[in-house]
Design goal:
The protein is of the alpha/beta class and 298 residues long. The protein has two domains: 83 residues, 434 Repressor (Amino-terminal Domain), CATH 1.10.260; 203 residues, Endonuclease, Chain A, CATH 3.30.870. Helices cover 53% and strands 11% of the residues. Strands 3-2-1-4-5-6 form a six-stranded mixed β-sheet, with helices on both faces. Helix 3 crosses helix 4 and helix 11 packs antiparallel against helix 13. The longest helix has 21 residues. The termini are far apart.
Length: 298
């Protein structure tokens, strides 16, 4: 694994969070027990364990003492991660930072670490598979809510993310579940949508990218969840985070029960989608239909 994957603050914080939760449970303590023992507020313990905040080395040592952790190698590794988790290290330039949401900044770091990414999109192709023309069109939807510089930065970052998934040798396995209706929406016009469909079909030829189409007959059940992405950060089934994106907000969720619920829903729907080959056929057929209509003209 590359250093960039190991050293991102968000991922280091995730490792500390998981280790502390595991140690607390091994010590048979509740979060309330810990707050009482250390004379901390319960919310402080909860924020540290949920990954909402980083942790100082002093606080980390205090927790490890309460949990009776004596493994020096583990303590050293956690201290290393605690230091990294509080750094302001970014995978984009400092000029880009202020134009990205906190959730997106975390997502960039988790994508760099992820081994498997499961994404569901009910309406559009996700940013990592968007063509430049499609990305520009979709970012234009925000109109006055985003400045011109906001849109430019988000476009650049979207293209950076796309290159990681579609061109990087050690790219994660990317599983996209896309609603069938999304193939039929002529977003940006026939030419832009035809290009997008063809680009998606080409991306799906990569061994790490798997696209499956949700049948229209499935109804609106999964669509009610909205777009979401589940990222596996290692082979440990608990080392997972959830990213949710809405029209004007986004968030990274660490809560194990919530993440597990979304992953289970994804897996359940994935098994009922069109097969990978049939899905690719649908994408190509829709692209061909749009190309034909462009040739025929209005």
């Amino acid at each position: 694994m590359t250093a960039a994957r190991d050293e991102t603050p968000a991922v280091a914080r995730q490792r500390v969070r998981r280790a502390l939760r595991k140690a607390r449970r091994a010590a048979a303590l509740t979060q309330s027990d810990v707050s009482t023992a250390l004379r901390w507020s319960l919310s402080k313990v909860q924020r540290i364990e949920s990954g909402e905040v980083g942790i100082s080395v002093t606080d980390l040592r205090a927790l490890l003492d309460v949990y009776s952790v004596v493994d020096e190698a583990l303590i050293e590794a956690l201290i290393h991660d605690a230091v990294i988790s509080r750094r302001q290290r970014w995978l984009v330039t400092s000029e880009h930072r202020e134009h990205l949401t906190p959730g997106l900044r975390q997502l960039l770091q988790f994508e760099a670490q992820a081994t498997v990414i499961r994404a569901y999109q009910p309406f559009i192709f996700p940013g990592v598979l968007q063509t430049p023309a499609m990305a520009e069109h979709l970012l234009g939807w925000f109109d006055k809510s985003l400045s011109e510089q906001d849109r430019k930065v988000r476009f650049d970052v979207r293209m950076l993310r796309a290159r990681r998934i579609t061109q990087q040798e050690d790219a994660p396995t990317y599983l996209l579940m896309l609603d069938e209706a999304a193939l039929r929406r002529e977003i940006g016009g026939k030419a832009v949508m035809a290009d997008q469909l063809e680009a998606a079909a080409a991306a799906a030829a990569r061994t790490n990218i798997h696209i499956r189409i949700v049948r229209l007959a499935e109804g609106a059940t999964v669509g009610m969840l909205g777009a979401f992405t589940v990222l596996d950060l290692s082979d440990d089934e608990d080392d997972v985070v959830l990213y949710r994106e809405f029209y004007s907000t986004d968030q990274v969720i660490h809560d194990a029960e919530t993440v597990s619920s979304f992953r289970a829903r994804f897996e359940s729907m994935w098994s009922r989608c069109y097969s990978r080959q049939d899905s690719l056929g649908l994408i190509r057929a829709e692209a061909a239909s749009l190309r034909a209509s462009l040739i025929r003209g209005p």
